């Protein structure tokens, strides 16, 4: 038989198609290499308490993906044994649990592999999953019998009521229940997909939950305070609404105010910062002042109530004046020496000498007890000093002497301290030469009434005998002007 060229081409194409279809059927659908030689597969033995309806060719899943099938199911003396044929392309951790589940209500069991951790070594050919790491669903007949016994134990009338109420509760909600079940299923699938992250979250949530349990009282107090605040906001709803309605306009007015004060506002804020620092330092003293001020005002008001409801012609505050001259005497220690003091007749106003001038007698001296030397150092409790710099330094207050008036050399002191007192580390100013043409002004001096002795401005001791207690009682004004003999 002679075949033309067209028939030969058709036969060749048919043969290629037949060979291709046979190869696809053998290698793809029948999976002959796996069936005949086990290529691309490995077997794992699963030990069970009972077969639970598991059958050959049942699916084996891992994280929701089919990874193999059940090759055979055999009975043993203690239960059943199933041989799983798994695909080599999937790496399954050996630390796992195998569970048998039903895919539908009529059966169709399958094996689900649930890994405990992802860091375990993968399963290999010949591994055995122990019976302690497996579970099977309860027998369906036993479950139906238990359900039947449970329903029979319920009185018929109550059971009918329960069924009717259940129908009333969920009747017509099929789509909603279906959506709920699908959502729960999707959540379960997502949780299974992200199992490692979910387990890590659960493990690491313990410290957070412990901290919440530890701070339970604080959280309850916070919730109570929040409830109080929300209650106040609800009670003052109109005021809050007014703030919200008028807040924008008020904020705009405030912005315009700041814009008008822009040239001087930075300087004002800088000054307020210094004042705030001082107020913060002297906070205890300010608190004490605020505590005593109301009582002082009350006492002042009480003194003005004298003879208020009486028939006296005068009513109000009682005042008593007592004339105490030189009691206590004036403190001159720590001020300029007599030769450097200006006469009251001078009308010019030279610059004040550098340094501090204050009464520099001992701190426990009985007079001028509220002087600068006894200022309390608020930043250093227990210390008293006349200046802030001395309070914050290691320097302690040192008096000049224990007298009322100036003593010693007019150009120096007995303690060697400068007058006026200079800050720590400051160099003394140069001394100006004394003017030869201007005589020193007259300065007062204390004297001893028993002897008439007194210390002059130059530091020398003088005696005025006619001032002593032994002086003649009857003196003329001429004798008082004439110096006594020997002086």
Description:
With 487 residues, the chain is α/β, with parallel strands linked by helices. Helices cover 39% and strands 12% of the residues. The protein is built from twelve helices and ten strands. The protein has helices at 5-29, 32-37, 140-153, 156-170, 174-193, 195-214, 216-235, 237-260, 265-281, 283-303, 388-391, 477-481; strands spanning 41-48, 59-62, 65-75, 80-87, 96-104, 107-115, 128-129, 134-135, 453-455, 461-463. The strands form two sheets. Strands 7-1-4-3-2-6-5-8 form an eight-stranded mixed sheet, with no helix packed on it. A hairpin with a 2-residue loop joins strand 2 and strand 3. The chain is elongated, with a radius of gyration of 55 Å. The model has no long low-confidence stretch (mean pLDDT 80).
């Amino acid at each position: 038989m002679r075949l033309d060229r067209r028939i030969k081409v058709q036969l060749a194409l048919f043969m290629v198609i037949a060979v291709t279809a046979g190869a696809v059927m053998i290698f793809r659908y029948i999976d002959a290499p796996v069936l005949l030689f086990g290529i691309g597969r490995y077997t794992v033995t699963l030990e069970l308490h009972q077969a639970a309806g598991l059958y050959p060719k049942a699916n084996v899943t891992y994280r929701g993906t089919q990874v193999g099938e059940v090759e055979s199911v055999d009975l043993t003396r203690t239960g059943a044994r199933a041989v799983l044929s798994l695909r080599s392309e999937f790496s399954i951790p050996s630390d796992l649990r195998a569970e048998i589940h039903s895919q539908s209500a009529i059966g169709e069991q399958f094996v689900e592999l649930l890994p405990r951790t992802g860091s375990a070594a993968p399963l290999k050919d010949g591994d055995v999953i122990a019976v302690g790491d497996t579970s099977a669903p309860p027998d369906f007949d036993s479950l139906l019998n238990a359900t039947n016994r449970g329903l029979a134990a319920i009185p018929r009338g109550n059971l009918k009521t329960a069924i009717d109420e259940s129908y009333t509760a969920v009747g017509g909600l099929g789509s909603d229940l279906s959506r709920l079940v699908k959502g729960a299923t999707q959540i379960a699938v997502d949780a299974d997909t992200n199992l490692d992250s979910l387990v890590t979250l659960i493990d690491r949530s313990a410290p957070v939950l412990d901290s919440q349990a530890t701070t339970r009282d604080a959280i309850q107090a916070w919730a109570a305070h929040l409830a109080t605040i929300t209650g106040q906001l609800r009670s003052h709803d109109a005021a809050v609404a007014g703030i919200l309605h008028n807040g924008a306009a008020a904020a705009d007015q405030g912005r315009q105010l700041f814009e008008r004060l822009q040239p001087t506002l930075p300087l004002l804020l800088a000054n307020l910062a210094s004042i705030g620092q001082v107020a913060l330092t002297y906070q205890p003293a300010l608190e004490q002042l605020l505590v005593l001020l109301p009582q002082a005002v009350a006492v002042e008001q009480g003194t003005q109530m004298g003879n208020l409801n009486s028939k006296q012609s005068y009513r109000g505050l009682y005042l008593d004046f007592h004339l105490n001259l030189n009691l206590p005497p004036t403190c001159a220690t720590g001020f300029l020496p007599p030769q450097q003091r200006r006469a009251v007749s001078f009308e010019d106003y030279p610059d004040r000498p550098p340094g501090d001038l204050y009464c520099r007698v001992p701190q426990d001296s009985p007079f001028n007890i509220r002087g600068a030397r006894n200022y309390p150092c608020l930043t250093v409790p227990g210390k008293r000093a006349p200046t802030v710099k001395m309070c914050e330094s290691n320097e302690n207050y040192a008096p000049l002497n224990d007298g009322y008036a100036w003593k010693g050399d007019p150009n120096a002191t007995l303690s060697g301290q400068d007058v006026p007192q200079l800050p720590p580390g400051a160099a003394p100013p140069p001394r100006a030469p004394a003017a030869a043409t201007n005589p020193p002004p007259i300065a007062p001096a204390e004297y001893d009434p028993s002897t008439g002795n007194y210390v002059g401005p130059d530091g020398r001791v003088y005696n005025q005998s006619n001032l002593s207690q032994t002086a003649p009682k009857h003196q003329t004004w001429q004798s008082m002007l004439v110096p006594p003999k020997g002086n």
